Structure formats: structure tokens, C-alpha cells
Amino acid sequence: MRNLIxxxxxxxxxxxxxxxxxxxxxxxxxxxxxxxxxxxxxxxDPNHSMVAWGLNHLGFNNYYGIYGNVTGTLNLDPxxxxxxxxxxxxxxxxxxxxxxxxxxxxxxxxxxxxxxxxFGPSPEAAHFVSTMVHPTSPTTAEIMGNLTFNGQTHPVTIxxxxxxxxxxxxxRKETVGFHGSATITRSQWGxxxxxxxxxxxxxxxHITAAFEKQ
Length: 214
Known about the structure:
The chain is mostly beta strands and 214 residues long. The chain has helices at residues 2-25, 100-106, and strands at 40-44, 50-57, 61-67, 71-76, 85-90, 126-137, 140-149, 152-167, 174-185, 202-213. It has one domain (2-27, 38-213): Lipid/polyisoprenoid-binding, YceI-like (Lipocalin, Beta Barrel), CATH 2.40.128.110. The protein has 2 helices and 10 strands. The longest helix is centred in the N-terminal third of the chain and has 24 residues, at 2-25. It starts with a helix and ends with a strand.
């Protein structure tokens, strides 16, 4: 298992570095005029929306993975950001990790009818539904909501920022992009395997998402 985790770290570092670079280099433009964003319903672009996750490996370093194909809707009124809402699904049945063995472990059924170590086969998608949006600036907000996966629901707060806005030259649709971050404690959702020998319980989530006007 250690070798699998170390292998995951290598590719995961590259994948999450791409997300981190995006967060660092493609933040809100100075003086971004959010009044140019149309109010209405936006749909997540599953090809360009993803959640990168990372946790500590035995106290030595962090390792990472990615979940893509995010779907869902964003209801947005730039004149009243507190009334915004988001409802998204994150598939958990195809994690991007470095090792095929680790990929299989994440989706492996428990032995002899026992509970799986992680998600088990054919896990339901994670589901985040916002309950409150607290704007902290014209381009940033705290998004409070409930995250459901592995049969459990707990509150999560996402620190979100507007990353870009305009017309997508490919789809010709009005598009808004966001980056977000949050930390969850995986054992709260019944995924505490490995914490007893040093795998981190706290999981850092880094989100990058594009939404297209419907």
C-alpha cells in the first residue's frame, strides 16, 4: 500500500500543481466589472470543472488526486450575490490517481462482506448543495452548504472567488469561472481508513469550475 500511495503522490503532485498554478495565475482581473455578468441559471461545464484533493501521507508529504466531470447548476444575480445558490454533483467512480492499484483500492469492495476501506464499487456521486452565500468582496464569497457522500451529510464552507467571465469562444455561451477551497475531515463521512497509522484525516479540496449561461 505504501508503494501505491507514493506512486499516487508523484502524478497527483503534477495534476494538482496544474490546478494550483491556475489558481495563482488566473485570479480575478483587476477592476473586474461583475455587473456585466447576466443574472440567471448557469450549468457546470463538466469538461472543465474538477475537484483536486490532497491529504498528508504518514507525516512525510502530501499526495493528491482529482475528480472531474462535475455537473450541476449555479443560480446567480450579480446585483445580489447573497441570493446565489449552487447545486453540483461530483462523480466518485473514476478517480484520477497515479496508480492503477490505488484506483482499484478506492473502489474495492470490503473483504468477506465487510465495509470497504474507501468508497467501494459503484459509489454514488458526491452532492454539494449551498444553504447560504456570504459575499466578502465583489469577487469573493463564503459558500456554506451540505456535502453528501458515502451515505452521510455534513456542512462544508467553500472559500470561493470569481476567476473569469465573458463569452466562451468555443461554445459561444456566456461563461463564468470560479476557484474554491475547503477542508473536510474524511472520517466524518465514514472514510477513516488509515488514520490509525498516519494517513491524514483532513482533506484539502481545491476546486476549479466553469459555468455556462442557460
